[in-house]
Amino acid sequence: MTEAPPPNDSFKMDFSGFILSLNTSALIHLGEIPDPQSRERMVNRPAVKHTIDILEILSEKTRGNLSEEENKLLEDVLYDLRLKFLKN
Asked: Does pTM surpass 0.85?
């Protein structure tokens, strides 16, 4: 019987990584970057809006509990995604 390899500790998810992963997902749905599986660029506005809504909820629920860097990242990501959503 083969043992499972130990978990990979080189990548630890933190709040900033989570926000950046949501941002990447939204950019894929905006057609800004190709889907990693299909390599196609497709626009899915409802999925982008859903991600923006999630980020807004996170912003509201974490208010006062984030570091300055985390808060700035979240604000910047939300601002950029809202602009891109309106332009798209």
From this structure: no
d(Cα 13, Cα 21) in Å, to the nearest integer? 10
Q: Measuring CA to CA, how many Å separate 36 from each of 20, 33, 40, 41?
A: 16, 9, 8, 10
Q: Note whether 27 and 83 are within 8 A (CB).
A: no
Query: How far is Cα 51 from Cα 63, in angstroms, rounded to an integer?
Result: 18
Q: How would you write the pLDDT of the chain (88 residues) with one tens digit per residue?
A: 455 555 565 668 899 999 999 999 999 999 999 998 999 999 999 999 999 999 999 999 999 999 999 999 999 999 999 999 999 8
Distances (CA, A) of 84 to 18, 35, 42, 55: 20, 17, 14, 15
Neighbours of 78 (CB within 10 A): 17
Dihedral angle, C-alpha 19, 70, 78, 81, nearest 10 °: -50
